[in-house]
Amino acid sequence: MELAFHRSPNKYIGGVSIKVEDLKRSIAFYHNLLGFKILEQKENKVVFSADGKKPLLIVEQPDNVIRKQVRTTGLYHFAILLPERKDLANALYHLIQMNYPLQGASDHLVSEAVYLADPDGNGIEIYADRKSANWEWNQNQVVMDTIPLDINDLFSERDPEGWQGMPEATIIGHVHLHVAYLDEAEQFYCKGLGFQMTSKYGSHALFISSGKYHHHIALNTWNGIGAPKPPENSVGLKWFTIILPNKEEKDQVIKRLKEINARITEKDGKIYTIDPSGNQIEITTAH
């Protein structure tokens, strides 16, 4: 895994917080099945980690929680980036052995990915990147595709001992969001937060990144143009974290967000903002 895309001087995703209906069921899924370590556990919240130190995923069960709402903005999927191709082979083989339902397995040219959902319908991508030196760029747009994953070739790399839980170097590679309007999302994430477009598919999908990664964030209108924000107590995304390289960049982001009239609050050195579609974001710095 090329960690340069997920460290300074780039901006990247730190962690994700999601809401679920049944916390015990989620522990069985994320800890027992996927192999995340439990970093902290409370009555209505669990913090998961890959290395036992860094929080990657927070799962909460809100009061009066309702099931995931369809045709709304919010989480399409969060993407778990594994360090090596063999880790993806081990993970996929394990999921098949455990008879867990999968939603797809794709080769995107820049990466190989497996898609599934947690028991509450929160979308998950588990993927491994191909070497960035082999990514193809057409001017400033990265060449991606969605073709069937060569599972036999992938399985040729799996370890004999099989899946041993999330590798310690696992991170959240990107988040993919449902938004109401692509143009206003582009203004918020590119003009406001300072990400660059890496790929655009008409008026329905946009991929953006920092430092020429294929994408740290993806945005789509597949739940309908003008889709409403889900209720606060519904299953789905609570917030995600963007990590900026330093205070100077944070100051610039605050300035740009104010210029586009985005909502901002500051607390304990972190910025909190909400995109035009109601997706909540925590912004912090690496240094």
| Count of distinct strands | 19
The main sheet comes to: 9 strands, mixed
**Which CATH first-tier class would you pick?**
Alpha Beta
Oligomer: single chain
Strand percentage lies at 35-45%
Q: Encode the helix/strand succession as letters.
A: EHEEEEHEEEEEEHEHEEEEHEEE
What is the straight-line distance between the termini?
Answer: 22 Å
Question: Can you characterise this structure?
Answer:
The structure is a single chain. This protein is of the alpha+beta class and 287 residues long. It has one domain (3-285): 2,3-Dihydroxybiphenyl 1,2-Dioxygenase, domain 1 (Roll), CATH 3.10.180. Helices cover 18% and strands 36% of the residues. The chain contains five helices and 19 strands. It has helices at 23-33, 85-97, 151-155, 182-192, 247-259, and strands at residues 12-19, 37-41, 45-49, 55-60, 74-81, 104-107, 111-117, 123-129, 137-138, 141-142, 147-148, 171-178, 196-201, 205-209, 217-220, 236-244, 264-267, 270-274, 280-285. The strands form three sheets. A nine-stranded mixed beta sheet has the order 11-6-7-8-5-12-15-14-13, covered by helices on one side. An eight-stranded mixed beta sheet has the order 2-3-4-1-16-19-18-17, covered by helices on one side. It has a two-stranded antiparallel sheet with strand order 9-10. Strand 3 and strand 4 form a beta hairpin. The model has no long low-confidence stretch (mean pLDDT 97). Residues 12-129, 171-286 form the VOC domain. InterPro entries: Glyas_Bleomycin-R_OHBP_Dase, Glyas_Fos-R_dOase_dom, VOC_core. This is Glyoxalase. It holds the Pfam family Glyoxalase. It comes from Aeribacillus pallidus.
